[in-house]
Amino acid sequence: MQQIDPTQITDNFISLIGKEWMLITAGSATLYNTMTASWGAAGYLWNRPVAFVFVRPERYTFEFMEQNENFSLSFLGKDHRDAYKICGSRSGRDTNKIQEANLHPLTTPSGLVTFKEARLTVECKKIYGSMLQKDHFSEPSIYEQWYGETHGGDHKLYIGAITACFIHS
After folding, report:
1. Integer CA distances (angstroms), 48 to 7, 12, 157, 161, in order
2. Which of 40, 66, 91, 161 is 20 to 30 A from 129 via CA?
3. What is the pTM of this model?
4. Sign of CA dihedral 64, 33, 41, 104
5. Model confidence at 42, in pLDDT bands (50, 70, 90)?
């Protein structure tokens, strides 16, 4: 892994997150969970580079997000679609999805977890978190389409200050 400045990331984050997907991982090297996400963003806010991620409370990763200050985003590349599908459809509560997905955990210098298969890792420190709320949607049809009892509940939005980025060779 080679550390780079966040401004050196040349990928388009709209394509990176929306089409390639990412793994959100929180916890320690000995106890962590990861999940696939295709919703999120990266940009510049409060005079720093940040990433936005969304996690539903019923996801096992949510517990780790709540209990830890930091999380990582791992981008595996389109060749690892099967690993993304496994990590997005199985719960770490009752299966070893890392093993099923044939992923190999790596610990970053700061102690966060990423994967040998990642081509890019972004480390974040949580600086804001808030549950999405139905009455805050200016376009009610979005809430009706994606949230509520029939869709698994609301997401919590986390904003993380980007603290380190690594490219993998």
Report:
1. 11, 18, 18, 7
2. 91
3. 0.94
4. positive
5. very high
The answer to whether 87 touches 75, Cβ cutoff 8 Å, is: no
d(CA 136, CA 157): 13
3-state secondary structure of 77: coil
- Structure tokens that stand for 121 in this block: 């890792």
- DSSP assignment of 14-43 equals HHIIIII-EEEEEE-SSSEEEEEE--EEEE
DSSP state of 60: H
Question: Coil, strand or helix: which one is 141?
Answer: helix
Alpha-carbon distances of 20 from 23, 75, 132, rounded to whole Å: 10, 8, 25
Query: What are the Cα distances from residue 127, in Å, to 21, 118, 141?
Result: 23, 25, 29
What is the rounded distance in angstroms from the CA atom of residue 44 to the CA atom of residue 96? 35
Please write the tens of the pLDDT for every residue from 94-125. 889 999 999 999 999 999 999 999 999 999 99
Mean pLDDT of 144-164: 90
d(CA 47, CA 98): 35
Residues in the chain: 169
